[in-house]
Amino acid sequence: MDSYDPLWVEPGVSISDIMSYHLIKMYHMAGRCTNCGTCERACPENIPLSLLTSMLAHRLKRDFDYISGKNPEQKVFLGEYHYEDREDFIK
Amino acid sequence: MKKIRMEDFERELSRWGTVFKRTEEGFMEKDTLFSGRSRQSPKEFLLPREEVLFVARKSKDDVEILPSKPSKKKVVFGALPCDMKGLELTSKNFMQDPQDPYFKKRMENTLFVSEMCQYPSSSCFCRTFGFGPRAQMGDITYFKLDEDTVLTIPLTDKGKHALKWENYPEAEPQDLKIMENVLSEVEKKVEKLDLSYDFNRQREVYGSDVLNESVFHCINCGACTFVCPTCYCFDIRDVKRKDFVIRERVWDSCMYFVYSLEASGHNPRKERTKRAQNRFMHKFFYQPLQYKEYGCTGCGRCIDTCPAGYDIRQTVLKIQSFLEGQNG
Ligand code: SF4
Ligand code: SF4
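# iron/sulfur cluster complex -> structure
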């Protein structure tokens, strides 16, 4: 957010900028977010952020059998890969 | 004061412009009026989140400047005294020489109909700043007698021309008595902090341990600056599209690192707490020095909004005793 160079997201109120901000954020949250719901409670604009975080949790479980925050021993999600991982969604 | 049925009142006002009512979120085109302070103040009617100043379009071998569209006529209905005070303070910045033409135009095209406040909450402290729930502000002010009736009075010429006042009966003495009783009850519920700052001692306060500790848990999210009716910082940006450029004004926040970043790379407020201190300093020292009035209306929005639980009243009181202590 705090960056003008490169400017990832313009500071106006266009829906595409707001959406790209949230999607960029969500990509980085995969495997870290435990879907605890604090962000939604903190949000002053009452944005239902748990819609995005629960989708993230659901996809991780479905596609990679990964649940964040469950086991302190497990590797971070974005820092690990298996040869069998699906990659048909990468175009 | 005139006694008017809510329905007639609204219908007459809608002839002046589109009516935006106080809702839980902000001021919107809705049917019902929310019983309480809205989350967003009406400052966006004068200073929108995103405002196009002009569009520059490339034509063959020239650049064409297209002015922004004129703002529509709008009625802000049910703004509370703290909302109105916020707009008044914000106007000081835009309406003194040199006047901001965009702000001025919006001011002319907006009719402010304020409501005397019956919705005190635990975070309100407006009485600290020399006004209160009964303040009569804006172009027209009204008191909600019950769900269907208002007692109302115009305060400006604009307000006088908005309604056919002569068609409505005067309020009866017993109505005025009810109003008086309700408002004095409401007043009792609103906090009044005792403060008498010596603004010239600003340098002792900024950077002091007391202030630093008091704002320490702020995470610089900027939420308070967006809901605050008196925070008016903005940024001017050029948005590039294929063959035109939009110059627009957007809300900015002093809580962000890039806000105070200078072209040389130096940042006078590079520490997180310095930025949080600055917001307090601006409202309680710099603004009074410049405009002879505190830059806070005590609406309590920042207190309700802050995800980190920062309460500006704590800082206000701590600085008061800090200043007193130093005096001996
Ligand atoms: S600083 Fe807080 S209490 Fe004061 S006017 Fe702004 S939002 Fe309201
Ligand atoms: S809302 Fe709270 S945490 Fe966010 S910038 Fe304001 S004081 Fe800091």
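# post-check
The first helix of chain B runs from residue 6 to 16.
The longest strand of chain B covers residues 50-59.
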